[in-house]
Amino acid sequence: MSDTIDVTALGEKIVRVLKTIYDPEIPVDIYELGLIYDVYVNEDMDVKILMTLTTPNCPVAETLPLEVEEKVKSLNEVKSAIVEITFDPPWTQELMSEEARLELGML
């Protein structure tokens, strides 16, 4: 039971960290932008993040995933972190949160 709580708490901490990372071209964090598809945390505190980019030719395609990985690894509870990029499904504006759409004047 305590392991489940620890994994859940770590997942919430990871989301808070992800919300500090911004797409350099759009003034919205990558979580609210809908670039994070999933965050997996196992009982050993290994983390895998499945994310996408706004386009395959995104100028931060090489640096953004590394930034995500490094910031997540910086959490004391995280044993290891891997970021996997996918374009299936491709990112669309519909993946943005209501907060992100409001920030970008789309509501």
UniProtKB/TrEMBL annotation:
InterPro entries registered for this protein in UniProt: Fe-S_Maturation_MIP18, FSCA_dom_sf, MIP18-like
Pfam families noted in UniProt: FeS_assembly_P
Domain (MIP18 family-like): residue spans on this chain: 12-82
Gene3D superfamilies xref list: Fe-S cluster assembly (FSCA)
Protein's UniProt name: FeS assembly SUF system protein
